[in-house]
Design goal:
Number of strands: 0
Structural class: mainly alpha
Order of helices and strands: HHHHHHH
CATH topology of the largest domain: Rna Polymerase Sigma Factor, Chain: A
Largest sheet: none
Number of domains: 2
CATH architecture of the largest domain: Orthogonal Bundle
Strand content: under 5%
Shape: globular
Helix content: over 70%
Length: 180
């Protein structure tokens, strides 16, 4: 039997590994249910704290993402009063339906995300920089054009071409991937 400090060290390693590996999925789940990115990031941090506090309740061998998303769900419900002033507020039934759909789509979205990362690596570095800069939160096409040394018109044309190229690449990658 392991001494208490070694068990605690192993527990922390497992917790850190699971949170790190699944952070993107948990954030994506939260972001589908709240009005804006800043709120989603705040709720992710709150969710992470609760995950750390309640990690002893997690049953090894079960679905960590589902467990973490359930914690996020309760954090979102608790925080809904803050969002009540938002222009778009969904009733509880709609929120629950969206939450369920987000959980069901998580594996497909992970596959798409991996395919997109693969396809982005195939792009010329200047094109990859244009796409990544454009989709950084708060950035515009003008900023992406400036950073890549393009005119605004050239940036719009390049983005249109690159979106189509990435869409086709992701579609092809997913179609040619072996079935699970």
């Amino acid at each position: 039997m392991l001494p208490e400090t070694e068990r605690e060290t192993e527990r922390r390693k497992r917790l850190t590994s699971l949170i790190t590996r699944h952070q993107r999925q948990i954030f994506a789940y939260i972001y589908t249910l709240v009005p804006n990115r800043d709120d989603a990031e705040d709720l992710l941090q709150e969710t992470n704290l609760v995950i750390c506090e309640k990690f002893d309740e997690f049953k090894e061998g079960t679905d960590f993402v589902a467990w973490a998303c359930q914690i996020a769900w309760w954090r979102i419900r608790y925080a809904r009063q803050r969002f009540a002033r938002s222009r778009v507020v969904f009733n509880q039934d709609v929120l629950e339906a969206v939450a369920q759909t987000a959980v069901e789509l998580a594996p497909e979205l992970d596959e798409r995300h991996e395919a997109l990362a693969h396809c982005l690596q195939k792009l010329h570095p200047r094109d990859r920089e244009l796409i990544l800069t454009r989709y950084e939160p708060g950035n515009s096409v003008a900023e992406a054009a400036r950073r890549t040394g393009r005119t605004l018109e050239a940036a719009y044309k390049a983005l249109h071409r690159l979106r189509k190229l990435l869409f086709d690449c992701v579609t092809h990658h997913l179609e040619s991937a072996p079935a699970p």
